[in-house]
Amino acid sequence: MRVLLAGATGLVGGLVLKLRGDMAIIPVTRRPIPGTPGVVADFDDLPPLPEARVAICALGTTRAKAGSDAAFRAVDHDAVLAFARAAKAAGVTHFILVSSVGANPNARLLYPRTKGEVEAALERMAFPRLDILQPGLLIGPRAERRPVERLLQWAAPLMDRFLPRALSSLPAKTVAAAILALAAQSGPGVFRHDNRALAATVS
Fold first, then answer.
1. When comparing pLDDT for 186 and 118, which is higher?
2. Does 173 participate in catalysis according to the annotation?
3. How far apart are alpha carbons 44 and 49 in whole angstroms?
4. Which domains are delineated in the chain?
């Protein structure tokens, strides 16, 4: 089974590559990954992608890192949907998206609204199977500095005592393992997975 992966240089995508075993994963990235063959291209000008059955999208940034609302949407909205369109053209029938808890196209805040808009757009694309992951705060080592997230990760064990399970933190490794498990499934439909469901997938 051949799998396309966008976001392979990020926290979750990098773990998917690390844990993939013998699964044939082709990263689609803006810059090469040493020792890992893949497709290197800008997401606003993607070439035809290799034929595949499954596509995993773990693209994402923050408003602070992007620098503006428009730059944030260029990654979390435009690049995600560009990858989805290219994946569908490559024959993908199963799309897996790493979204976020609280995603809502009608939200007032930029982050959950953008995530919700992407989820809705992907549903309209009508992949035979669509898995939407909605984890809470992801715990794990990031390559880039995100001071606010580092603080939240440090405080997560205390915060989790007072938060509903769906809003609490979750190891990024659990999300990556759940993605790989879901990639092997083929039943049709649209499925949303919160923290509890993601943990149960790999238990």
1. 118
2. no
3. 14
4. 2-201 (3.40.50.720)
Q: Which two tokens stand for residue 194?
A: 């919160």
Tell me which of 65, 88, 115, 173 is the catalytic residue: 115
Strand partners, 191: 131
88 among known catalytic residues: no
pLDDT value of position 166: 56
Catalytic residue among 18, 65, 88, 111: 111
Could you give the C-alpha distances from 150 to 102, 147, 187, in angstroms and in order?
Answer: 20, 5, 37
* pTM score: 0.89
Assign 192 a pLDDT band (cuts: 50, 70, 90): very high
